[in-house]
Sequence to fold (86 residues):
Amino acid sequence: MRFTEELVGAGDLDVPAPTRAPTDREVDTAAKLVDSLHAPFASERFQDSYRDRVRQLVTAKARGEQPALPEPEASQARTFGWLWVA
Fold:
């Protein structure tokens, strides 16, 4: 999911050129998939709450405040080997 200010045009993407053309079956399947999922999308309906919270924290620290950080709930914290994920 990207937010309005993060959208980029297709020409700005660094994507390698295809090595072969898609088969007719692949094109038909892709068209059916796109048709079944097609719906209007309004990115402005979504808010980047993570970015807003980071900005609030940076602003508080710039004012010299020491913002309190919430502890993750036990049900949200998971461990994958050495990596802890909230």
